[in-house]
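Appendix B. Chain record.
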Amino acid sequence: MTPSAPIFIDPCLCPLCGQSNQCANEIERATGIPQPPCWCTQATFDTALLERVPSEAKGKACVCPACARPLTPSCAVTPD
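Structure tokens predicted for this chain:
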């Protein structure tokens, strides 16, 4: 069995829809400019939403505010 190439996960993009996740932590890391607390510190994430995040992206990229909102049609991605 040939090992597969590592999958690149962009920490600035939502692993569900591919749009910017607006992560203040990543913005600060990239720019060096201090940011206010990230929007996600005040958000509640549904367990079903978190289960949809691909395993290779868990702990590496945050979902975006649109996907974090319950019942967002634009992010109604079904798992493979």
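Further analysis of this model is presented in Appendix C.
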